[in-house]
Predict the structure.
Amino acid sequence: MAVNDNPGREATFSPLEVMTDAPVIPVIVLEDVEHAVPLARALVAGGIRMLEVTLRTPVALACMERIALEVPEAVTGAGTVRSAADAEAARRAGARFAVSPGYTSAVGRACRDLGLPLLPGVATGSEIMAAAEDGYTELKFFPAMQAGGLAMLKAWAGPFTDVRFCPTGGVTPLNAREFLALPNVVCVGGSWLCPVESVRSGDWSRITQLARDAATLRR
Ligand SMILES: O=C(O)C(=O)C[C@H](O)[C@H](O)COP(=O)(O)O
């Protein structure tokens, strides 16, 4: 893991390091700030520490702050980053990487300026080319199943030999292995590690077990 040159600041990561840390990046939706720390601890206990907290709920930024402060073993990232303002707010809340459901140069520029590694979301060849033009070649393929799944990734391997993907959207424990077996896939993303009912009921041991199973998926 690359350590930031700035003494006193936390370690920083390249987008590739965010992707290679574990076979799965959990997509997290938090409804209650009180769930943030136990959920992050449960995932870390199962061997998953790169955590994508989506900016889909009003408490998402507060949750990121809590995890960043109280679970130093976790690396908090922001998901659903749709604008430069989202990226700035996430960085202020302690996010150390960003994931976006699509790509715009404004988001790419903002993340670069903030020193926030970004996994931009793409679903077409033109979007891959736009992200690559801005220097982004580690990409989230979203929504993976709906936009062509395994066949799409196989087709992209031809023209986009230097691009690596994190397919997300419809990836499950049943199909994750097939995605991870593709040479242009480094990791997958998915919400299955954090089932809403388990988070609501505080079933942290179930989440640790799901994380453990995900962490041992073979690439
Ligand atoms: O919120 C975002 O920024 C997204 O890009 C969407 C999520 O990555 C997918 O909704 C996860 O998909 P599932 O694993 O099928 O639930």
Summary: Strands lie at 24-28, 50-54, 75-79, 97-99, 118-119, 121-122, 138-141, 164-167, 188-190.
